[in-house]
Predict the 3D structure of the following.
Amino acid sequence: MTALTFGIASLSTGAGLGYGMICFEARYASVAWFGADRLDRRVVMRSEWRMLELALQVGIPDTPLQSTHVVPWILVAADRRASVLVQRVADLRVAVEHARVAETLDGWLRDLAAKTDEALSSRT
């Protein structure tokens, strides 16, 4: 399995807002917003999973995604989508038993966000 990681930033300031992670095979989608106490588990409709499957077949670019692309649709609430920038950061290979995939991805996402949030806080 592969987990795709995305950076989420403010479109107006460029400031990082958090990271999102999607694993199609595990039907996993969550966001770690900087400063938040817990992950924002995203509820994904079956039609969005199908659109993501098509996007994966074509290939998801490493450049910023249009707000109409399926990835921002999955990771960001509709009322915030037009004001953020979503960009692919990394692909992570997931090699754990299926029952532990969500727990493992949650941990990776929390660690990534915490390290970045800590680095940003130390600059101020």
